[in-house]
Amino acid sequence: MAINRWIQSGNYRRSYKEDQTIFATFSEQASLIVFLIFLALVPHMPFMNRQLFRVVDLAFIYTIAVMGLNIVTGYAGQINIGQAAFMGVGAYAAVTITRDIATPLFQFGKTLPFWYIIILLPLSGLVAALVGAFVGLPSYRLKHLYLAIATLAFQIIFTWGVGHSPFLNQGGSIRIARLDFFGTVIKGSKTIGPFFYYFALIVLIIMAIAMRNILRSKYGRALIAVRDNDRAADAMGINPGLTKVYAFAISGFFAGVAGAIFALYNGSVIVESFSLSTSIDFLAMAIVGGLGTMVGSLIGPSFMLFLDPFVEKFSGFAQTIFPSTIDVATAMRPTIFGLIIVLFLIYEPRGLANWWRLLRQYFWRWPFKY
Amino acid sequence: MSEKKSQLVIDNVILSFGGLNALTNVSIGIESGAITSIIGPNGAGKTSLLNCISGFYKATSGSIKFEGIELVGKSPYQISKLGIARAFQNIELFSGLSVLDNLMLARHTHLKYSFFESLFFYGKCQNQEIINREYVEGIIDFMELEEYRKAVVGELSYGIRKRVEMARALTLDPKLLLLDEPMAGMNLGEKEDIVRFILDIKAERDIAVVLIEHDLGVVMDISDYVYVLDFGMKIASGIPDVVAKDPAVITAYVGGESLI
Ligand SMILES: Nc1ncnc2c1ncn2[C@@H]1O[C@H](COP(=O)(O)OP(=O)(O)OP(=O)(O)O)[C@@H](O)[C@H]1O
Ligand SMILES: [Mg+2]
Question: What interface predicted TM-score (ipTM) does this complex get?
Answer without folding.
Answer: 0.91
